[in-house]
Amino acid sequence: MNTQPQRFHDALRSTGMIAILRGVRNAEAEAIGAALYESGFRIIEVPLNSPEPLLSITALRKSLPADCIVGAGTVLKPAQVEQVKDAGGELIVMPHSDGAVIRAARDAGLYSAPGVATVTEAFAALDNGADVLKMFPAEQLGPQVVKAWRAVIARDIALLPVGGITPEGMAVFHAAGASGFGLGSALYTPGLSAEQVRQRAEAFVAAWKALA
Predict the structure, then answer these.
(1) Pick the catalytic residue: 45, 82, 85, 121?
(2) Which residue of the set 134, 168, 195, 209 is catalytic?
(3) Is 62 part of the annotated catalytic residue set?
(4) Which DSSP string do the residues of the chain spell out, in sequence order?
């Protein structure tokens, strides 16, 4: 079991956003991670369908301060949870809400953010031990669904829309009850330099601070 659940929630409250580095290469992971951290990000995930994702997770975990949570995205099977843990990962992010994967993360002492698209999936994920709920895909669900979910899901449960989120689009989701966001291609796409990622990260952080 995870003995430090507050650490993840502290990181989430710090900036409210998870950086998704889909396609990042091991050789550039440290520089991009540093740019994100210096911009204010405190949670970074490397999807497992990236090149050498476990090596990138290890590099990020070794190079970033302890208050930054590093983990894996697109985790599909329970067996992958141990691989992520062995690489130094602390967070399991999923596109789906497979209870076996959520329980594997919980039992390994890792945080979990399963993807959910219905209230039924959301409550099942929480029953299995999910730490936060990844509302995916956000483009399809929209802020109206966030508002409807928030009426029945307690405020202390983080709802994180993921998919198509831009700095300009955050306010309407936040007003509807979103606790934070997962950021993909609007923040990072393969081929961007660390400086380009820094500029995008700063724009997102500025937009987040404007919501306070």
Answers:
(1) 45
(2) 134
(3) no
(4) --S-HHHHHHHHHHH-EEEE-TT--HHHHHHHHHHHHHHT--EEEEETTSSSHHHHHHHHHHHS-TTSEEEEES--SHHHHHHHHHTT--EEE-SS--HHHHHHHHHTT-EEE-EESSHHHHHHHHHTT-SSEEE--HHHHHHHHHHHHHTTS-TTS-EEEBSS--GGGHHHHHHHT---EEE-TTT--TT--HHHHHHHHHHHHHHHHHH-
